[in-house]
Design a protein that fits this description.
Largest sheet of chain B: none
Shape of chain A: globular
Oligomer: heterodimer
Shape of chain B: extended
Order of helices and strands of chain A: EHHEEEEEEHEHEHHEHHEHEE
Strand content of chain A: 25-35%
Number of strands of chain A: 13
Strand content of chain B: 25-35%
Distance between the termini of chain B: 44 Å
């Protein structure tokens, strides 16, 4: 027996949490805790949450993070609170023999996506297929059949279960030298929910302004990022030149480099990291 | 400076109990930003494919 549980259903949170706990990727931006914050913020009040979970035999198999909104040009857009829509899989639901999901669950997922597209008739749909467990999402299949354009991307994933020594050995020599230089010459600090100060808020505002300018911030509100840090879902790393540290303390000058990272219990993601932005414009 | 900050963030993520660290994504077709590509590829790690799908009605 297969079923679709939509966001408005009282059982949605239960199934979503069970699935997200078994999602191999656990992208921090698509956790329900993170989305809960968004729903309460004014900047996201125009988004309608159409996320759903596909259930098979009482267990969640697939989920899709999906919102609808009308943009400033009056176009109906499907995505997820300014990011791409995203799908999640329950790795416990995979059939070990075929390394794939049950056909009936796939069909229910595809049918529901088709139904939503027919109902909403979006002008723009942006979706990110995480290619979980090496399998293209059934959602992608539906969208490609409708004439969607795919852009192939490569994500670099680092295994943090390795020791620090092993991690460092995998880093290129040129970067290791720069890390060593930084450790000698920078005061590096971490701002998180425990110690987030007004100075840190000012640094965050500067990173945010740069990201907005270069088109790298999907969220148009600084409040969103502050919430992530204050709720313990993100941290900011900042570096000051050691000989400028005292000046910084006296005059509150800006750190020479700073970057924001978001995380769940399993996955950490580089986020507002100037050097990794699409338009490199920082030292 | 950024490599030192990224290294610190890797260490901090480990201390938080995270087991995966995603450095970022780069489109195969994007050959314009070699600096970004170099930094993405210089910390080791496995490459995983992502598909960004855009449908304009």
């Amino acid at each position: 027996m297969h079923d679709v549980i939509e966001f408005a259903d009282s059982k949605f949170k239960h199934y979503w949490s069970e699935l997200f706990a078994n999602d191999p990727l656990q992208n921090p931006f698509y956790s329900q805790n993170s989305s809960e914050l968004l729903r309460r913020s004014k900047s996201a009040s125009h988004y309608v949450d159409r996320s759903f979970v596909v259930i098979a035999e009482g267990k969640p198999v697939f989920a899709c993070s999906l919102t609808m909104h009308t943009d400033e040009r009056g176009r109906k857009c499907l995505g997820y609170f300014g990011l791409e829509a995203f799908s999640h899989v329950n790795r416990l639901s995979m059939q070990t023999s075929s390394n794939n999901f049950k056909l009936e669950a796939v069909q229910v997922l595809q049918h529901h996506i088709n139904r939503l597209i027919d109902e909403i008739q979006p002008n723009i749909l942006e979706y990110l297929d995480p290619v979980s467990c090496g399998i293209m999402s059934p959602v992608t299949q539906v969208l490609l059949e409708k004439g969607a354009r795919p852009i192939v991307q490569t994500a670099k994933i680092i295994d943090l279960t390795l020791s620090e020594h092993a991690l460092k050995r995998k880093i290129r020599q040129s970067q290791r030298s720069m890390i060593n230089w930084g450790q000698r010459n920078l005061d590096i600090s971490i701002a998180s929910e425990q110690n987030f100060s007004d100075n840190d808020a000012a640094s965050l505002a500067r990173i945010f302004a740069r990201a907005v300018k270069s088109g790298d911030s999907p969220y148009s509100s600084l409040e969103r990022y502050e919430q992530l840090i204050r709720q313990g879902k993100a941290f900011m790393v900042q570096g000051n030149l050691k000989n400028e540290r005292r000046m910084h303390e006296r005059h509150s000058t800006a750190p020479v480099a700073s970057a924001l990272f978001v995380h769940t219990a399993r996955t950490c993601l580089t986020y507002l990291v100037p050097a990794l932005s699409r338009h490199l414009n920082d030292p | 400076m950024m490599p030192a900050l990224i290294w610190t963030s890797l260490q901090h993520s480990k201390s938080l109990g995270c087991s995966l660290f995603e450095m970022g994504r780069l489109a195969h077709s994007d050959t314009s930003n070699t600096e970004r590509s170099r930094l993405l590829n210089s910390f080791g790690g496995d490459s995983q494919t992502r598909l960004k799908i855009c449908l304009a009605g």
